[in-house]
Amino acid sequence: MEKFNKYALPLITILVIYLPTLAYIPVYVYLALIPIVGYLKFDVIKNWWKKDKKFNSNMIAVASILGFAFINRLLHFNISNPLSIHSDVFLLPVILMAALVFADKKYYTLFIACVFIEILFGVVQFSIGESSFFTGLLNYYAFTDYNLFYNCKVFGLSSNSSNFALKIFAAIVLVRGLKLQFKWLLLIKLVLYFGIIISFNRAAIIGCVVYESLYFFILLLKKKHTIQQSVVLAAVVLVLSVNYKEVKRQFLRQSVGVQSVISFSEDGRTLSEKEKLELIQLNTDNDQYLARILELYANSDDSLAKMELLNQYLKNTQQKRIHSGRESIWKRYTDFSLANFLFGNGSKRLIDPYAYHAHSIYLHILSMHGIIIALLFMYFIIKNINLKNAPVIIAMLVIGIFQSVIFWGISALDIVFYSILLSPFNIFED
User: Fold this and answer.
1) Which of 63, 186, 332, 358 has the most beta carbons within 10 angstroms of its beta carbon?
2) Where are the beta strands (DSSP E) in 112-203?
3) How far is 415 from 360, CA to CA, in rounded Å?
4) Which residues of the chain have pLDDT under 50?
5) In sequence order, which ranges of 19-104 are alpha helices (DSSP H)?
6) C-alpha angle with apex 21: 344 to 206, nearest 5 degrees?
7) 130 forms bridges with which residues in the sheet?
């Protein structure tokens, strides 16, 4: 049993946490965490109680969230939106215990190893000009033009580039918990940051900048910074400064010249050469260009899905870029949240007719629960932030402005987030 706990259990746990982040693997695999944390529950709670001076107040905060959510669910039981383990608040105890199990070097190492394997697949995809090996994915596309990273971002083994990038971000912050020698840390982070570039999720990139900036700032306050760290930071700042215009162009998705349409994989349909030429010729008239594109993709019934597909499959001109749809998504979720300020959607995830999620953790939790439970969640987070975990937690909260990175109910990123928030995670130890 001791060997099982030491070797087999960590591997099984990581597979249960990581597999649902991959394409075609159902999220219900996360439910296997229930028997795992049930098997370990006594040790987990005992260790948490010993190490966490805020244990009692944290338990009160969690109980308050669950209690208010239960009342909210009862009061709005007739809401028709289906429940999902991806957002069910009553799985919070499971995810918190899973997070505390995860808060260990051996789990960090296994998670980072999984991310490394996925990056290797991403590198191959980037080199052969395919977003994914899973060509059946709705947002799969091929590319030959490397002018913009945004238009040639890869998915690894995930269902989209966002999931891939956010796992890489998690690996970037976890790697410092391994307390490696500087040269090995630098080498691993170079690989991880290359993965961030080829997956090119701008929210994750912003999160990395916030994380690294806060980390170095706190090092300066603690007077722990080294010459090696200062040299690396100076080199990065110099490279970015010299290439400022190119960095800005990539981040704002400003194409150079007219880019052709590469392919369209919905129902296996590919645009004809005549249609490609027509789109390029229409690029000088933005309204006509957009109208013609929507006409070409009229076989899709979901207007927001069209916009998403167009962002993935059409290489737009410098004059016209189709936005990601966040503006309209945020407006709809904001309008709903204001109209249902106290109770939200009865503690069920709001499923917008045109969007799978809110693309913001704040709108997600506000629209789902209302202001009372949303404030309880934020209180629970803020009370557990300290100087040791602040760079990671703040960076993830910044990413959350643009991306539904946490508050999924149960997900790999939620587990990483809570493990860092509640454990004695310290990225500043020698």
Assistant:
1) 358
2) none
3) 18
4) 82-83, 256-269, 280, 283-286, 289-290, 299-300, 302-309, 312-323
5) 33-51, 55-75, 92-102
6) 70
7) 142
Can you name the residues that pair with 142 across neighbouring β-strands? 130
Phi (first) and psi of residue 130, to 5 degrees: -130, 135
Please return the burial class of 121, using the count of CB atoms within 10 Å of its CB with bins 0-12, 13-18 and 19+.
Answer: middle
- pLDDT per residue over 349-406, tens digit each? 877 666 667 888 999 999 899 999 999 999 999 999 988 899 999 999 999 998 888 8
Could you tell me how far CA 135 lies from the centroid of its own chain?
22
Provide the pLDDT for residue 249.
76
How far is Cα 152 from Cα 141, in angstroms, rounded to an integer? 9
Distance CA 294, CA 107 (A): 46
Which sequence spans correspond to the domains of the chain? 2-99+326-422, 106-251, 266-313
Between the alpha carbon of residue 126 and those of residues 121, 123, 200, the distances in Å are: 9, 5, 12
DSSP string, 180-225: --HHHHHHHHHHHHHHHHHH--HHHHHHHHHHHHHHHHHHHHHT--
* 3-state SS, residue 142: strand
Q: Are 306 and 294 in contact (CB under 8 A)?
A: yes
pLDDT of 119: 97
**Interval 146-193: pLDDT, tens:** 888 888 899 999 999 999 999 999 999 999 888 888 888 889 999 999
Exposure string of 201-238, with b = 16+ CB inside 10 Å and e = fewer, is: bbbbbbbbebbbebbbebbeeeeebeeebeebbeeeee
The reported pLDDT for the residue numbered 260 is 36
Encoded tokens for 99: 């997070």
Q: What is the pTM of this model?
A: 0.81
Query: Residue 416: its pLDDT value, please?
Result: 94
Distance CA 91, CA 401 (A): 23
Two tokens, residue 421? 């928030």
Read off the DSSP letter of residue 42.
H
